[in-house]
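Lab manual, section 2.4: Encoding a predicted structure.

Procedure: take the sequence of the chain (116 residues), apply the prediction step described in section 2.3, and record the output as structure tokens. A sample record is shown.
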Amino acid sequence: MNKSMKTVAMILVAGMVLSLVGIAVLSTNQSRNTPSVNQGQNVRLTSNQQGVFNALARRYKCLCGDCTLGLYNCTCDSPKGAKEIKGFIKYNLAQGKTRGEVIKLVSSRYGMQPGY
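Recorded output:
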């Protein structure tokens, strides 16, 4: 193998390594920006954030399909149930999202509108 072919091979290998590193960084950032189902369960909220959480949770109905409770009173852990949705709301409030932003996020993720 001549010198120019070795250089090309090294450039290709370096490009592949950089691509893999870039993919790993992007997927790590993506997972940080997308809260997991349980990520907000143990989040500490300020008293103001807790007030916003309480007001929002009282305006939604649980989506579990097994109850007729409002989100605030329900404790089910069904997929898309009260624990998951309340955790999602808490997580986003703790991240500094406003009431309006949280409503949009809940609507986007769960198809819910406040008004229970």
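Check your result against the sample. Helices lie at 3-33, 47-57, 82-94, 99-110.
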